[in-house]
Design goal:
The protein has about 300 residues and is mainly α. It has 15 helices and no strands. α5 packs antiparallel against α6. It starts with a helix and ends with a helix.
């Protein structure tokens, strides 16, 4: 993308204008003297919206270069990167409940709000939207495994009597949680290998070399030459990023997300005390809605 095109994109009203809150947050955080932590909290959250938008765009651009199969894996791996970064920083600062709330909000937003918005927009645009039944079964199985794993520590804590045990309930539940995490990581890795091996030689994969070709060969868009003709009007189509630019934006956005997450985590106590919010509300609602707000501009294109 040329410098002139970048200036043209930035000059149009868009979510990129929220980038003004990035330097504002940095100034408030590092300016000598007392700081308004509630104001820093809100400026950091607004900055996280545009950074999450950049992360999503960089992931999509990079995924487009590696083909539909690996691209889908990249989208699945990096789509929740903002919540993952925030959660890790919250855990490092001893804010375990806040991290749990943020990840709970991410699960709810992805499983309900994002899927519901995708179905609504897809139905509005194309009428009847179809999807492979086998992939839906695989996703349902993964969801069931994840749901059982999340509930198991709580069920174990209520079902087992620890009064006669030599170890505390917290230690046992911690060990159960660690082993469940290892199991989930192994299951996720196995699902990736299974998906790659299963769909590498499938008929759509043989007909298409990339995501555009897969869409053209599908029944959803018999009149479309490429994805841009279907989803985005011609005047809204932006030039494709190169691999170095995509990796650079992904890395820079991750660093900015870490800084902003650190600011938000530091201001949680002031926000809960000053506004009366709980950590559950901050994590599940405020932090959980940030990735959805970053998708607002793409949804409006429909």
């Amino acid at each position: 993308m040329q410098l002139q095109e970048v200036k043209q994109v930035l000059s149009q009203p868009s979510i990129n204008w929220l980038a003004i809150f990035l330097p504002i947050s940095l100034v408030i955080a590092y300016l000598p003297g007392p700081r308004n932590e509630i104001f820093l909290f809100f400026t950091s959250c607004l900055g996280m919206v545009v950074v999450a938008y950049w992360l999503g765009n960089a992931t999509e651009q990079l995924a487009d270069k590696v083909g539909s199969t690996w691209g889908g894996m990249m989208n699945a791996a990096f789509s929740n990167l903002p919540e993952l970064i925030f959660g890790l920083i919250a855990v490092a600062k001893g804010l375990g409940p806040l991290a749990k709330a943020a990840w709970t909000g991410a699960i709810i937003s992805n499983m309900l709000v994002a899927v519901g918005a995708a179905i609504m927009v897809g139905g509005y645009r194309f009428g009847t939207v179809t999807f492979p039944l086998d992939r839906a079964k695989d996703a349902a199985a993964g969801l069931m495994i994840a749901a059982v794993a999340i509930l198991m520590p709580s069920v174990y804590a209520h079902a087992v009597d620890f009064s006669s045990e030599s170890v505390s309930a917290a230690d046992v539940i911690k060990n159960v949680s660690v082993w469940l995490s290892v199991f989930l990581l192994m299951a996720y890795g196995g699902s990736i290998i299974y998906t790659l091996a299963r769909f590498r030689y499938s008929e759509p994969a043989l007909q298409a070399k990339n995501l555009v070709g897969a869409f053209v060969h599908s029944e959803s868009a018999p009149q479309a030459k490429n994805l841009a003709d279907v989803f985005v009007p011609e005047e809204n189509v932006e030039m494709s990023w190169g691999v170095p630019l995509s990796i650079g934006v992904l890395a820079a956005s991750s660093v900015l997300m870490a800084f902003l997450s650190n600011f938000v985590a530091d201001c949680v106590d002031s926000v809960t005390a000053g506004l009366g919010w709980t950590e559950m509300f901050v994590g599940a609602i405020v932090i959980g809605i940030i990735p959805l707000l970053s998708l607002s501009e793409n949804i409006c294109l429909f």
